[in-house]
Amino acid sequence: MDRNTFFGGNPLGVLIRLALISIAVGIVMSALGIDLGNFFDRINQLLRNIYDLGFGAVEWLLQYLLLGALIVVPIWLITRLVSASRSKGGSES
């Protein structure tokens, strides 16, 4: 596997796109009041809840998993369908 295949394109271009997307996501998270300290505090709280509450924390985690999946899975599915139609359409030409 060469590096273009691994990165999904020109490595420098991919890194620049990832940096720009990371900046945009960072701005949105900051607008929502999430910063690095807050983020790691929430991760720490999550791990503590799992340890302290046992199955109650699993239910709590499952609720967030399902809530996130409502957004993530359709976006993933749409991108896969668009990607598949592009590759299918490109090979027919």
* Proportion of residues in helical segments: over 70%
From the alpha carbons, calculate the radius of gyration and give it in angstroms. Answer: 19 Å
Work out the strand percent.
under 5%
* Protein structure class: mainly alpha
Poorly predicted ranges (pLDDT <50, ≥5 residues)? none
Plain-language structure description:
The chain starts with a helix and ends with a helix. The protein contains 4 helices and no strands. It has helices at 3-7, 11-31, 36-53, 55-92. It is mainly alpha-helical and 93 residues long.
Topology record:
Blueprint: H1 3-7, H2 11-31, H3 36-53, H4 55-92
Helix pairs in contact: 3-4
Give a summary of the structure in a few sentences.
The protein has 93 residues and is mostly helical.
